[in-house]
Amino acid sequence: MTLRTDYLIAGTGPSALIHYLNLQNSGKEAVLLGSGLYGQLKPVEYRQIGKPVNLLPIFPVTESNLWKRLNPNLKADNHLTLEKINLNGIRRPEYRLQACYYNYLLQHQQESDIPYILSYKQFGDLIFKHPLTELKKKLNRNYRSGQPKYLKTGFVNGLSPYYRFLKSREPYPVIPGMIEQIDYINKMVHTKKGAIRYNHLIYTLPLDYFFDTTGLKKTFELISGGARFLIYYTDEPLPENHLWYCCDIDSNIYRAFVPQKNLLVVQLSRKRWEKNPNEISTELQSITGIKEKFHHIDTTTHLHCYPLDVSCNIKKEELAGFLREHNVYLSGRFAEWRYIDLHEVDYDLNQYERESYVRNTVGYE
Fold first, then answer.
1. Range list of H helices, 57-100
2. How many alpha carbons lie under 13 Å from residue 273 in its C-beta half-sphere?
3. What's the rounded Cα separation, in Å, for the pair 259 and 249?
4. Most buried among 181, 215, 261, 317, by the most CB within 10 A?
5. Contacts 24+ apart (CB under 8 A), 272-279
6. Do 322 and 352 form a contact (C-beta atoms < 8 A)?
7. Torsion of Cα atoms, 176 then 177 then 183 then 187, to 10°
């Protein structure tokens, strides 16, 4: 069986859904292909809470075009509050690569040890081994003197405003299944159940998977960082939408977030992933000022949630340009392999379409 569509969106995460809504609003035909609707924004439900909650700290930036585009009437009353605690300086290693991210911080962030500490706790030895170009870009875009440039809005009753908006726009036209092959020359995607012909393909899945399904040779390496989260319940209420960053280099905790008043999501320091959750529970009492016991109820690990660098950025850009010639658009954090947030994705494909048209008419091969 072969289906046909103008726009095929590979993926069903938040960036894929936003692409679909934009195309729908423009009167264009589009369908989504994949499984696991909402991706990392899909809420979970714990018996202790009794209602669904979002766990990952994915917050809208209230000044962003995306926030205004999704719904100009969305309110931003629950602002995220940040707190940095327990400063204890980093021990600087004797050996590191000349072009590594740590040396970059030495040159550009000399007024404080906090950038060193937090980047080491989040990414471990990667900061001494790679330039981490995407991390540099994110730091320059979003922070000034170690402080966020933009106001972010927090969760409402445990749910991200992004999720609440996207949920309100259901149903979505989703073709369930996994991609087995992408034939970008003939503009076809093959799954176990059949083929889909498209005029334009918007690809939002991980870039590694793209190489696997197209047969294209990967001419650059991808460098990424992971995260491990411990989920805790407490009877004593916590301040909702509060985010603690622990600046003690010896602490097990990188940061802790309160999505709902009785729930705490703890991201471990990269070097402390194997720590006993009960040991972390004791440390949480000191960080939050809560005397009640924290009960560990879940653990979740994401091995590749931070795209940090590529071995050759020129080759990555050449790949993106080559694919646009075939009406294939890499879009989103993992497809573009850029350390960007939802509001930083380019959801306007008109420019790509114009570029493809002009190049084809002047004889590009």
1. 65-70
2. 13
3. 25
4. 261
5. 273/228, 273/301, 277/230, 277/232, 279/252
6. no
7. 0
Domains and CATH numbers, the chain: 2-37+172-220+311-361 (3.50.50.60), 79-154+223-307 (3.90.660)
Q: Pull the structure tokens for residue 232.
A: 């805790």
